[in-house]
C-alpha cells in the first residue's frame, strides 16, 4: 500500500520542525465594525456585501470524509466581512482551502468569501481570527481558533489535506491536522510537543507538570486539551 499526501501549500508551511517566535506585539488594529444585523433581512439581503466572493463548488463525493470544520452541513454563525458584522449566517469553514463559505440568498448557491476581507468569524461555539504573516514566524496568514484567552492565549490552526492510497484503485480521504500556538507577552510560539509546552511555561513548569499528572491529563491523548488546561493553570498561578 502506497500513500501520497497532498497538503495545501499554505498549511504545509507549518510543518517545519522546531519552535519559532517573533518580536511583534499582537495583530494589526482591526477595522471599525458596523453591525449589519441579520444578513437575511429582506430589506438588505440582495444588496448585502456578504455575497462578494466566488462560487464554491465543493468536492467529489468519492473522497472519504469532508473538507469542513466539524461537519459538512451548513451551520449558523457570524462573520466580520469587509468591515461589517453579519449574524445568523448559514456558513461553512473549508479547512482545505482555509476559506469561509456562506450560502447565497438564493438558497442553494454557496459563496467562498474573499480571504482578505474576513476579519473574524464564529462557528459552532468557536471564534476564529485572521492573523497575517507580517507578524513573523511561526505565523502565516490564515484563520486561527482562539480556544483559550487569558494573560496567555492559545490558538489552533486547523487544516485538512487529501491523502491518497493505492489499493485495488486510488482512494482519497480528507485528513485533519491541527497545529497549536501560544501567544505570550505579544510573541507567538508554536507548540510541537509536551517538552515544548513545558519549556514555554518554564518558570512554573514543575507546578504545571504536577497539575497535569494529578488530573490525569496526558498530552499524547489530547494535545489541545492539555495545552489549554496547562495554560489556564499557568495563568492562575501568575495572577
Protein described:
By secondary structure, the protein is an alpha+beta fold. The chain folds into two domains: 2-191, no CATH class; 193-239, no CATH class. It has four helices and 13 strands. The protein has helices at 9-12, 194-200, 205-214, 223-237; strands spanning 2-6, 34-38, 53-55, 75-81, 84-94, 99-103, 110-113, 118-123, 126-131, 142-149, 153-166, 170-184, 187-191. Strands 1, 2, 3, 4, 5, 6, 7, 8, 9, 10, 11, 12 and 13 form a 13-stranded mixed beta sheet that branches. The chain is globular and about 55 Å long. The protein starts with a strand and ends with a helix. Residues 1-34 and 39-43 have low confidence and may be disordered.
As a percent range, the share of strand residues is: 35-45%
| Average pLDDT metric | 84
Share of helical residues: 10-25%
Which descriptor suits the 3D outline?
globular
Number of domains: 2
Class based on secondary structure composition and strand pairing:
alpha+beta
Rg, please?
Answer: 20 Å
The total count of helices amounts to: 4
Q: The biggest beta sheet, please? A: 13 strands, mixed
